[in-house]
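Q: I'm building a small set of examples for a reading group on sequence design. Run inverse folding on the following structure and report the sequence directly after it, with nothing in between.
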């Protein structure tokens, strides 16, 4: 209903009359105001909603999650980089979260027993840690955006080992300072029962900045990926790709991009031989000579895998 004139009162009518309503694609503030109106009228029956965007207002609803017990996916945080919040009319009217309030509210995610997908935007490392300590083990999908102060990706191995789909974007990421004691890394007697991100199938790291060791950390802790989309990093080399072995044996998509990409024709030949691979890119950022690109462009059996023609040839 985006782009319509449906406002909070209309949302309230939907909540009152649609017993199978799973989500409302409408102005986020109107949806939240409609839910608040539902509460003010004294209704206590759980709503059927399975998806809800709390934007910056989760702290206003955290004490009433009992009426939202069917939620399987939620978003917390605004869809705009933090530096533009006050400059954007749409997001300038959002609730301003008092310092420390979100930390108090996040433990109440425990009341959402069906929650499987969590999207967090413009949050701190400590706030993500609190959320993962509460619901991390039940999550199958996690999206993190606008974490400019950094995120410790080691928390995922410790607290969210059942993830199947992980996306991190517009953020700074770094590996854990403490040695990882999962079975993939630790050979001592005190290693944990964790086997890393054993269920992770889809990994996406877009527009991220890496601290040393972060570019390969999640790959090192995965087992069998179906899709890999990530920014290039200093440790993602031909040698590293060749060592991934079975981790990529079932992969269908590999997109590694960025001006720092060090991958060469050697990795193209290595990856193109994977039977399950359907797409390889973004080769315009890879270290390929004009001759190598021309060779690829003439191999019709490879065109489908390496993607668009501008991945292959320079303008001549």
């Amino acid at each position: 209903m985006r782009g319509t004139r449906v406002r909070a009162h209309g949302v309230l009518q939907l909540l009152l009359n649609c017993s199978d309503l799973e989500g409302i694609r409408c102005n986020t503030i109107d949806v939240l105001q409609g839910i608040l109106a539902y509460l003010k009228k004294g209704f206590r029956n759980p709503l059927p909603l399975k998806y809800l965007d709390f934007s910056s207002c989760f702290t206003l609803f955290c004490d009433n999650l009992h009426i939202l017990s069917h939620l399987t996916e939620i978003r917390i945080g605004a869809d705009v980089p933090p530096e533009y919040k006050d400059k954007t009319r749409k997001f300038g009217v959002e609730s301003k979260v008092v310092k420390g309030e979100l930390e108090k509210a996040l433990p109440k995610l425990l009341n959402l027993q069906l929650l499987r997908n969590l999207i967090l935007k413009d949050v701190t490392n400590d706030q993500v840690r609190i959320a993962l300590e509460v619901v991390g083990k039940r999550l199958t999908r996690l999206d993190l955006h606008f974490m400019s102060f950094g995120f410790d990706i080691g928390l995922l191995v410790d607290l969210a080992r059942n993830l199947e789909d992980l996306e991190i974007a517009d953020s700074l990421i770094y590996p854990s300072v403490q040695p990882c004691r999962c079975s993939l890394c630790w050979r001592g007697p005190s290693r944990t029962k964790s086997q890393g991100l054993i269920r992770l199938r889809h990994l996406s790291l877009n527009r991220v900045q890496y601290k040393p060791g972060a570019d390969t950390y999640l790959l090192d802790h995965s087992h069998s990926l179906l899709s890999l989309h990530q920014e290039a990093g200093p440790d993602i080399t031909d040698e590293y790709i060749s060592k991934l072995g079975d981790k990529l044996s079932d992969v269908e998509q590999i997109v590694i991009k960025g001006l720092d990409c060090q991958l060469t024709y050697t990795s193209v030949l290595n990856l193109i031989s994977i039977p399950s691979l359907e797409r390889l890119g973004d080769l315009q950022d890879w270290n390929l000579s004009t001759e190598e690109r021309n060779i690829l462009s003439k191999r019709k059996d490879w065109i489908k895998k390496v993607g668009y023609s501008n991945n292959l040839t320079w303008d001549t």
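DSSP finds twelve helices and twelve strands in the chain.
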